[in-house]
Design a protein that fits this description.
There is one protein chain. This protein has about 300 residues and is of the alpha/beta class. The chain has two domains: about 190 residues, Spore Coat Polysaccharide Biosynthesis Protein SpsA, Chain A; about 100 residues, no CATH class. It is built from eleven helices and eleven strands. Strands 3-2-1-4-9-6-10-8 form an eight-stranded mixed beta sheet, sandwiched between helices. Helix 1 links the parallel strand 1 and strand 2.
């Protein structure tokens, strides 16, 4: 099967070299490597020009639009999505193709979120030979490194409105049409650290529950009540402190958010790795995403 590697980029000068080297080092080489750049202001495009077999097919603002263009323009039967700050083992494509051949019904395939392993920008790319583990259905996706069949995009497509969580929106659209996502823990990848300034900006855009509610209505609340509760907690975390002047019980939002986080952590990660710094960081992230919710609410009305 022909594979189109699709990479959206934006200010990725510190990571794109490592990413492309890992793609070109695959045991089964891709048919094409396509890139849509988000108007990078660093040396990203200069670096890309050094790679003759890499095609920058367009520029686009917003990750949703970038992925939509890549999905429409890719000519391979399989689309391999790899983010510009990710590197993959040398047999990553080989294992994905093997699973797709043996399971013809699979249209979306990735590793679980914890299958990512940290990698420093200057660290040597590891040549790790991962093994295939049992394949499971999963209402989710590790968008930073996954594969999809081209035929999927005759039924669903990325939404340009989403500047973050565009993969979750795609999952919701696919789920409504009966298309399942699958994962294998053996399909891991390596994630290169991002600058803190960019992480903060992405946290703001990640507070986008309003976009899902606008698009799917009450169906989304029913199908994903946990996201709705997360939205309410984000809003309450922002207003709890000023409201506590009149209603002291408003401060209960903070311990409630903490308990909710601990329950979620137990379900998906266990307590072995939890630290006080992790808890404080998580609460801070939810506060910032709460600001993002207000950003999208204002855009919705104005």
């Amino acid at each position: 099967m022909k594979v189109s590697v699709c990479i959206p980029t934006y200010n990725a000068a510190t990571t794109i070299d490592n990413c492309l080297r890992s793609v070109m080092n695959q045991s089964i080489p891709p048919f094409e490597i396509l890139i849509v750049d988000g108007y990078s202001q660093d040396e990203t495009l200069d670096i890309l020009r050094k790679y003759k077999n890499v095609k920058v097919i367009a520029s686009a603002k917003g990750i949703g639009r970038a992925r939509k263009i890549l999905a429409e323009r890719a000519s391979g039967e399989i689309l391999a999505w790899i983010d510009a700050d990710v590197v993959v083992p040398s047999n990553w494509l080989e294992l994905h193709l093997k699973i797709h051949r043996e399971n013809q019904s699979i249209q979306i395939l990735s590793g679980r979120w914890y299958a990512f392993r940290p990698l420093l920008p200057r660290q040597t790319i590891p040549d790790t030979r991962c093994e295939i583990t049992p394949i499971h259905e999963w209402l989710g996706i590790t968008q930073a490194a996954c594969t999809m069949k081209k035929v999927l995009f005759s039924s669903v497509i990325y939404d340009e409105k989403f500047r973050r969580a565009e993969e979750w929106d795609l999952m919701m659209a696919a789920h409504r049409k009966g298309i399942k996502s699958h994962y294998s823990k053996g399909l891991f990848a390596y994630h290169i650290s991002k600058p803190r300034k960019r992480l903060f900006k992405e946290m703001i855009y990640a507070g986008n529950y309003v976009l899902f509610l606008e698009k799917y209505g009450l169906w989304y609340i029913k199908s994903n009540p946990r996201h709705f509760l997360t939205f309410l907690l984000r809003i309450s975390l922002i207003y709890a402190l000023p409201l506590s002047i009149i209603f002291p019980w408003a401060l209960m939002s903070y311990p409630i958010a903490l308990v909710a986080y601990l329950i979620n952590f137990k379900l998906f990660g266990g307590y072995s790795r939890i630290k006080l710094k992790t808890i404080v960081t998580k609460l801070f992230i939810e506060l910032v995403r709460g600001l993002g919710e207000h950003y999208h609410i204002l855009n919705f009305f104005f």
